[in-house]
C-alpha cells in the first residue's frame, strides 16, 4: 500500500494572530510553525499502516522553502520520502490541483489530509483533491481500517458518527480520533538524523488558477468587561441571562 | 440566474440551518436583483421555505437518497445549479454539507468560501467576510470564479421571515451507479437531544470538575436548559468524555446563543473555538482564569456549589415561565 499524507504548515495553536501591510497579510513575525494538527493525526495513522501493514508513506506540502522544517519533522517521525511543491498556497483549489498532480504521478492507494487547516480553515483540499483524482472520499474521519482493497472508515457527523465502507483509491479528511492525542510522536534523535538522509523532492507548480483572494483581514473587536455575579446571587445571573442577554 | 440554496432536511423535516441558509439566499438574491431557488432532498412541506423568502423549490424525492451520501448529494445540487443556471450557491456549515461542498466545488470548478459570517460586502466584485485562523481573525475574501459557493457559518446570519409563496417543482436528477461508491453501514446518533452543531445553548465542562463521575450535574444542567453538552480538550484527551464533545480549535466550533463554561480556565485554543457563541458565561474558582476576559458574565466560585444551585434556580425559573 502506498500512502500520501498531505501536510499544511500552520501557526502553532497558541499563536497570537496579527496582520500587517495595512491588514492585507498575516504577520508571521514571532510565529512558530507546526504540522497542521489535523494532518498530524493522519500522519500518525499512516505510521501505523507502515509498521503493521508494510505501507510506504510519502508526505507532500505546497509551500515555499520556509516550510521545510515542518516536512523534515514528518520525515523524522518516519515518513519515507517527501515532496514539496515550490509555490505559495494561494487558495484551497490551487493547493488541491497541485496535490492532484502529485497523486497522478505517484499512484497512491490512500491519501490522508487533515479535514481542515487551522489557519485558513477552508476544509476543501481533501474533497477537491478526491474529485480531481477520481478517488473515493470520506471527510471528518475518526477511524480508518484497511483490508486489501477495502476500507472501513468512521466519520463524525453532527451529534454522532457514521460507519462507511468503501474501496481504494481513497482520500481521507482526517482529524483527532484517527489516533489519540497520546499516540502523537515526538521525533527522537535517531529519527532526526535519518531524516537528513531521506529524499525531499522539490517540484515546480503546475499552472492552476485560484478562485478566491483574501483582500483584507481584521481582528475581532475587543471584548467588553465581564459582569461578575456573586456566587450567592444566582437569581441575578438568571435575571441577566433572561432580561439583558435574552438567551433563556 | 437565481441564487441556489441547498436546504438540508432530516427524516423529512427541514433542519434549523435550512431556514438560516434560505434567509441568507434571499438576502443575496435581493442584492443581485434576482430570486432564491432551493434544492431540497426528501423533505416534506417544501413550500414552507417560502416563509424565508424562497421563491421556488426544486423538490427531489428519491429512495436512493434516503441516507446522506456526499458524492450523490453534491451531484444533485450540481445538477440543480446547472438547470437553474445558478452562479451563486448557498450552503450551511453542517458536517454533511461541509462534506459535500468540496465535491460540488470541483464538479462546478467553482470558488468556495466557507465560514461566512454576514451578508456579502458587495456582489460585484463578489466579496464576503469569513472567519480565519480558527476565529482569531476575519478575512474579506473576493470570489473571482464564475460560479461562487458560500458556506454560511452556523447561527451567524440567523433566520428571518420574508413571507413569499414558493412554487414547488419536482426535480428528477440522474443518479449513476458511480455516485454510490461509499456506503453507509451504520449510523450511531443521539436522538431527541440537542447537538453541539445546532443547540441554542451549550453547557461545557473542564478539568476543574475533577473526574468523569462528576458530569451528572453538567448533564442535569443541560437537560434543564435543553442544551447540548461539551467539554474542553484535556477532558476528552483524558477519556473522561467522548471526543465528539471536545470543543475548541482542534475540536468542534461552537456558535450557540449561550455557552456556559464550567471549570474551564480558557486556553487560547478553547476560546478561539467557542468565540462565535453570542453570550458566554464562566464559572470558575480562579478569578485569574483567562476565560473571565472572554466571557460576558462570570461567577467566581466552586462549581460543585454553584452548579447545583443554578440547576435548582433554573427549574424554578422554568416553572414560572412555562
TrEMBL record, chain A:
Keywords attached to this entry: Electron transport, Transport
SMART domains linked to this entry: ETF
Domain of life: Bacteria
Lineage: Bacteria, Pseudomonadati, Bacteroidota, Flavobacteriia, Flavobacteriales
Species: Arenibacter arenosicollis
InterPro entries: ETF_a/b_N, ETF_b, Rossmann-like_a/b/a_fold
Protein family per UniProt: Belongs to the ETF beta-subunit/FixA family.
Keyword Nucleotide-binding assigned: no
Name this polypeptide is given: Electron transfer flavoprotein subunit beta/FixA family protein
Ranges where the Electron transfer flavoprotein alpha/beta-subunit N-terminal domain occurs: 23-215
From TrEMBL, chain B:
Residues annotated as domain Electron transfer flavoprotein alpha/beta-subunit N-terminal: 3-189
Membrane-spanning parts: none
InterPro entries tied to this protein: DHS-like_NAD/FAD-binding_dom (IPR029035), ETF_a/b_N (IPR014730), ETF_a/FixB (IPR001308), ETF_asu_C (IPR014731), Rossmann-like_a/b/a_fold (IPR014729)
Annotated keywords: Electron transport, Transport
Gene3D superfamilies with a match to the protein in the record: HUPs, TPP-binding domain
Family: Belongs to the ETF alpha-subunit/FixB family.
Protein name, as recorded: Electron transfer flavoprotein subunit alpha/FixB family protein
Organism, scientific name: Arenibacter arenosicollis
